Amino acid sequence: MSYNLLRGKKGIIFGALDEKSIAWKTALRCYEEGAQLLLTNAPVAMRMGEINKLAAAVGDAPVIPCDVSSNEDVTNLISKAVEHFGGGIDFILHSIGMSLNVRKGKHYTELDYGFNAKTLDISATSLHRVLATCMKQDALNEWGSVVALTYIAAQRVFPDYNEMADAKSLLESITRSFGYHYGVKKHVRVNTISQSPTRTTAGSGVKGFDGFINYAEKMSPLGNASADQCADYCVTLFSDLTKMVTMQNLFHDGGFSFTGVTQAVIEQMEK
In angstroms, rounded to a whole number, what is the distance separating the alpha carbons of residues 62 and 188? Predict the structure, then answer.
């Protein structure tokens, strides 16, 4: 059901890989709510994914490749977005994460620091680069909204989440710090959504994912939040209904983040 929450708004969606991804589902929901979109992803991800299929489903949205570790690529993306929209941008979804150490099977205690630097740059510093570029170009409209996707491993230890936990911690810090400066300058709000473990193509690559998603389901009073539900939540944060929400890490996890233990977990342990 559409409520026209984003009617007339224009936004950029980073990171839609395939139909399982939160970014993909968010793009569909934003379009249903009346938004005009521009899609982007890393060139290699675009070759692996089906982003052109998504573009066709959301009003033939333009697709612009962007390596978020490149100042030139980000500058080009924001410039072309403003040109395409004929003006400012109202919202941005940052759904970007990549760990070379995880891909290479390196344990957290034995990180390759060159890989680690790349992980932090792509997964976290990229948010700073996008926001800084938007500020320089005055690309975001007054009361614009930026949302980045994170995970509770930024606050708690999940051993197999590896260096991505550090990246998410940095991402949340950038959200607070840049959120302050952009709020003062132009009332732009910047938040992160800390989502339940979700069966996306990227998420499923984490070691022990199946066991953990089942554990999280038992530990969450409402159960795990789905990718579709996360897309709904993103829509609310892009809308004018949340104008005074900024610099927040917003848990969207069925209550997992504030639950010490559940009866279901106790019963499982007693078997």
Answer: 24
Model pTM? Answer: 0.96
User: Residue 184 corresponds to which amino acid?
Assistant: V
Q: Measured between alpha carbons, how far is residue 173 from residues 71, 114, 127, 198, 253 in Å? A: 21, 22, 11, 23, 20
Determine the average pLDDT of the residues in 187-210.
84
The neighbour count for residue 47, using CB atoms within 10 Å, is 10
To the nearest whole percent, how much of the chain has pLDDT over 90? 87
pLDDT tens per residue, range 7-31: 999 999 999 999 999 999 999 999 9
Q: Give the whole-angstrom CA distance, residue 73 versus residue 79.
A: 10
| Exposure on the CB side of residue 170, measured as CA atoms within 13 A | 18
Q: How confident is the model at residue 200 (pLDDT cuts 50, 70, 90)?
A: confident
CA distances from 76 to 15, 79, 81, 92, 255 (A): 17, 5, 8, 16, 40
Q: Express each pLDDT in 65-124 by its tens digit.
A: 999 999 999 999 999 999 999 999 999 999 999 999 999 999 999 999 999 999 999 999
Cβ atoms 60, 34 nearer than 8 A? no
Handedness of CA 147, 148, 152, 156 (dihedral sign): negative
Long-range Cβ pairs for the range 150-156 (8 Å, 24+): 150/192, 150/193, 150/194, 150/195, 150/249, 151/194, 151/195, 151/197, 152/194, 152/251, 152/253, 152/256, 152/257, 154/194, 154/249
Find the length of the chain. 271
